[in-house]
Specification:
Blueprint lengths: L2 H10 L8 H10 L5 H7 L7 H14 L7 H17 L5 H7 L9 H10 L10 H20 L7
Length: 155
């Protein structure tokens, strides 16, 4: 998945907020992506009107040939992203649990296993130390499986 597509799904799941899009656009320009609207977006202040930022973002993605994903597709991208980061040690199982939404309808088997292993984050405070370690191990195993699986959604 190329950088503009990553920015698009991260924006949908709110890993990137509207005020962060001008800087994200500047990073895309620095990485070699170019379009008139992307340049305009990169030139905005983070304090610009959200509607203006959103409009330029939509135009820039269109100019770059990137389809902004629907919520479910973006959430599935988040699952794969969190699994990869968890496998790499960049986030903890607890951090992953705080970001994963349980209501995604269409999942692959590996995605479903990861979501089920993560479970409901608010129960973690009530686990014994042994149960917490077992939960962390199960989440890490499921993340490993998912991180190795190909993302089946067309880009």
């Amino acid at each position: 998945m190329d950088q503009p597509a990553i920015v698009a799904w991260q924006y949908v799941v709110r890993l990137i907020f509207p005020e962060d899009l001008p800087m994200a656009a500047a990073h895309l320009l620095a990485a070699g992506y170019d379009s008139p609207s992307l340049c305009d977006l990169a030139g905005l202040s983070r304090h610009a009107e959200t509607a203006e930022i959103d409009e330029l973002f939509d135009e820039a993605m269109d100019e770059l040939g990137v389809r902004i994903p629907d919520d479910e597709t973006a959430e599935r991208c988040l699952l794969h992203h969190m699994a990869t980061r968890l496998r790499a040690g960049a986030v903890s199982p607890r951090d992953a649990a705080a970001r994963i939404w349980q209501g995604i309808a269409s999942l692959t088997e590996a995605e479903r296993e990861f979501v089920q292993a993560v479970g409901e984050e608010y129960y973690l405070d009530y686990l014994s130390p042994e149960d917490l370690r077992a939960w962390e191990n199960a989440v890490c195993r499921a993340a490993q499986t998912l991180a190795e699986a190909a993302f089946p959604v067309a880009e």
